[in-house]
Structure formats: structure tokens, C-alpha cells
Write a structure and sequence with these properties.
Blueprint lengths: L1 E9 L4 E6 L5 E6 L3 E6 L5 E6 L5 E7 L3 E6 L3 E6 L4 E7 L5 E6 L5 E6 L3 E6 L4 E7 L5 E6 L5 E6 L3 E6 L4 E7 L5 E6 L5 E6 L3 E6 L9 E2 L4 E6 L5 E6 L3 E6 L4 E7 L5 E6 L5 E6 L3 E8 L3
Antiparallel strand pairs: 1-28, 2-3, 3-4, 4-5, 6-7, 7-8, 8-9, 10-11, 11-12, 12-13, 14-15, 15-16, 16-17, 18-19, 19-20, 20-21, 22-23, 23-24, 24-25, 26-27, 27-28
């Protein structure tokens, strides 16, 4: 397996996240320059900019029906209409910087976490907060939500991963395993597995119920981001060493380590067909890679 660079895109400040559109033809990138930029994947043309957040944008995701969700350090999430490039709704409630977010596949619910130590679940159809989940003892750095929006995982500076039942507003389990901050979380496409990465440089795999699955895999740098391939076979991670790694999700085995960015890789995202990977860096660049399998 190897990565070959297809596109190089830039922002005016560090880039924290990237997402492919459902049809794989467009890429959205979120930056500390307070904007989200839209690009065509075929040729890297800049086709739009979303402006409205009052601080850096930490997360971006495409939703069904020509909508986009963003989350910002300005403590808010925004829902955008991609036809008009305007914000249709704003979700507010965090009492300090918002650091992370995730949306369910149907685009009906989202989850966010931040410096106020809380996890908040949002109903994207009404701008209402469905739940405020408290229990973390320090900043929440990573969150994930299942496809049905009923289960949430969160992790952060208290070195724990917490599993939540959204409808019951109750914690299901607290997991310990990382020796330092839990930086990122992602549910597998079938929601049966959970991947976590941490400042201890480790990638860990869990069942959806929180049972450890396989051993911990470590890298040379602090891992900051993680994403599953659409078929659930591979994982991509990015870290403070600027290296992008691909892993065999079944065996937990590292397949490649690609020196990609000059420093921290804050975001990794597969295209829906799994043939491309976008990486977002502190160095103000986004690289789009062709994923070439040996099979």
C-alpha cells in the first residue's frame, strides 16, 4: 500500500479538519483563519468560502440535502446551505472553547466537546441541545457518535474514554487505557468498533461496548486524529510528527508511515470510495492523496 499526492491546497492559518462530500467530488476544509473553504477534488479549484464564525473552525462535515456542519472555537456549531453558502442555524451552549465535534450519518444529530469539560448532543432538526453530558474532569478533546445518533464516545485530558447513552442521558462505561490525553475517537462504519488515539502515541481499538480489541499500537509522535476507511478495513492517523499512517484495522498492524506535513496533522478523512485520503495540517496545508492498494 502507498500514498501518492494528488493535490496541495492552502489556508491562511492552520487547518484543523477536512471532509469529502457524499459523492466524493468536493472537499471542505476547516481552518483557524475562521473560514471553511470548498474545493473540487478533480482539479483542486477553490469554489467557495464559508464565513461567519468568530474564531477558528475546528470541524467540518457534509450532511445530506446539500448541507454542511461546522464547529468553531467561538463555542458554536453552524449548519450551512451549500447552494447559497449561508448559515441556516447556529447551535450555542458551550461555556468555553469548543474543541471537537462529530455528526451522525443521517445528519439528524451532532455531538461536541470542549474546554468546559462537557459533551453536548444536538438535534440538528431543531437547534436544540438534546443532552448535556457531564463527567469528564478536564477538557474534552475528541468525540464520536454512532450512525443512529443514540450512542456517543468522548475522551480528553483526563485520560479516559466515556461511553454514553444519549436518550437516557446516562454514562454507560468509562474506559482507561491511554497514558496521556485522549486526542481523537471514531466509530467504525458499522458502529461495532471504536478507535481511539492519544498523546501517548498509541492507537487503541475497542468493541462498541468498550472491550479492548487487540493490543495497543504506538507511533513516534503524539497522535491527534483518526478516521476509518469506508469499508472498515483500514484506519488513518495523523500526529505531531507530521506523519500520516495507515493501519490494518483487523490486525492492528501499521501498513505505512508517510512523512506528509511539516508538523501536526490535525485531520484525516477518507473519500467515500476509499480511494483518496485528505490530511489537514498545522502547516496551513491540505494534501489529498491517492490510496494505492497492493491488492
Amino acid at each position: 500500500m502507498k500514498l501518492t499526492r494528488a493535490l496541495t491546497l492552502t489556508h491562511g492559518n492552520s487547518v484543523y479538519g477536512a471532509a469529502f462530500s457524499p459523492d466524493g467530488l468536493q472537499l471542505a476544509t476547516a481552518s483557524l483563519d475562521n473560514t471553511v473553504k470548498l474545493w473540487t477534488v478533480a482539479d483542486g479549484q477553490h469554489v467557495g468560502t464559508l464565513k461567519g464564525h468568530g474564531d477558528g473552525v475546528a470541524f467540518v462535515a457534509y450532511l445530506p440535502n446539500q448541507r454542511l456542519l461546522t464547529a468553531s472555537l467561538d463555542r458554536s456549531l453552524k449548519l450551512w446551505n451549500l447552494e447559497t453558502l449561508t448559515a441556516e442555524a447556529t447551535f450555542s451552549g458551550h461555556q468555553n472553547y469548543l474543541t471537537c465535534a462529530s455528526a451522525n450519518r443521517g445528519g439528524t444529530r451532532a455531538v461536541s466537546g470542549g474546554f468546559d469539560n462537557t459533551v453536548r448532543v444536538w438535534d440538528l432538526t431543531s437547534t436544540a441541545a438534546l443532552a448535556v453530558l457531564s463527567g469528564h474532569e478536564a477538557t474534552v478533546q475528541g468525540v464520536a457518535i454512532t450512525s443512529d445518533g443514540k450512542r456517543v464516545a468522548s475522551g480528553g485530558d483526563d485520560q479516559t474514554i466515556r461511553l454514553w447513552d444519549v436518550d437516557a442521558r446516562m454514562p454507560r462505561k468509562s474506559l482507561a487505557g491511554h497514558a496521556r490525553t485522549v486526542e481523537g475517537l471514531a466509530y467504525s462504519p458499522d458502529d461495532r468498533r471504536l478507535a481511539s488515539v492519544g498523546a501517548d502515541g498509541s492507537l487503541r481499538l475497542w468493541t462498541a461496548d468498550g472491550e479492548p480489541q487487540g493490543g495497543s499500537q504506538t507511533s513516534s509522535g503524539r497522535l491527534k486524529s483518526v478516521a476509518w476507511s469506508p469499508d472498515g478495513r483500514w484506519l488513518a492517523t495523523g500526529g505531531t510528527d507530521g506523519v500520516v499512517r495507515l493501519w490494518d484495522a483487523a490486525a492492528g498492524r501499521e501498513l505505512l508511515a508517510e512523512p506528509a506535513h511539516r508538523n501536526t496533522v490535525f485531520g484525516v478523512a477518507f473519500r467515500p470510495d476509499g480511494r483518496m485520503l485528505a490530511t489537514a495540517g498545522f502547516d496551513r496545508t491540505i494534501y489529498v492523496w491517492n490510496v494505492v492498494s497492493n491488492e
